[in-house]
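ok so I'm stuck.
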Amino acid sequence: MLHNAGSMEKNKTLILCADDFGANPAANAAILALAQCGRLSAASCLVDGPTFDRDVSLLHATQLQTGLHLNFTDDFGQPDSVMPINQLVLAAYLRRLKVSVVQTAVARQLDRFESLMGRAPDYIDGHLHVHQLPIIRDALLAEMTKRYGHMSTQPWLRNTRFRKASGLPTALALKARTIQALGSAKLVRLAAAKHFTTNAGFLGVYGFTGGESAYSKYMQAWLGAVQDGDVLMCHPECGDEARDAQRCAEYHVLSSGDFAAWLDANSIRLG
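replied:
not stuck anymore, here's the structure
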């Protein structure tokens, strides 16, 4: 395996996944810039976002894995019905989501991804992790089986299995465990039954506060905990149109020399 002079062999592969491509110009700019300098593995796409169409050709030209960021919460003027995440979770677990409506939304978003990208997604996840919720996960797996079950290389699914990292505030671990509890284990079992793969563990959950200092601390803890095949989620943005300063802080940390050094120190390659 090739590695930088002076660094140890990188024997753990991490999928560093930036969410929300298509949400706004700042998200697209950050993701494309990080892809160009080799600081990302994957980009999750909001196919109905206002800037997905505009920059899809630029994304296609990168070496990133590209996935569908299944959306049931954010209104971009799409025909699918959306609702706030707390209401969606409750409706899913009370079985109050209309199955046919969910099925139509899943199929339409996959259609749009395939039409604009010219191929199937490399993987599928969910905006605010909605893909792991009851009814939604069933509709998604059924649609994936119909479309991709015959393919030799199939899309994988992002699961939110908690990866414990030392040195993080208790509140962040609790948030990550709560996300996991909302459907990770069941999603993994259902996916395996249909022969779809998932990532090993999941990192990157925090409260979107603290600036570069806090994010640097969290990132070092996450990288110290990485096991081969894990996913680390991020939400970088840059420029005047960024939604908030914390997303810019993520971009600055990920594009820094320190971040490259932390990868080397933990024998991690992005893949």
